[in-house]
Amino acid sequence: MSDKFAKWEKIRQKGKWNYIIKHGVLIWGIGSAIFAAFFSSIIGDKSFLKMLPINLITLPIGGIFWGYFMWFYMEKAYMKSKATSPEEK
Asked: What is the pLDDT of residues 36-47, one digit of tens each?
């Protein structure tokens, strides 16, 4: 099994909701919120401090869905790899 899936085995042991909160809400949601507020203040007429609270509400909610989708995407790829792996047979 590849290193990618060795890392995934450690992540999946912590559980789906741990992954969704950590990777979806905290990393993707809050990271995207800060980036979007910064980017909109550069290219638009919106203030960083006005956009940040809105983004810190909406994008972490989107992060729940992103994390949920990514969990199932990685699980599907992991299970497929595990089923076709010669050392597992």
From this structure: 999 999 998 889
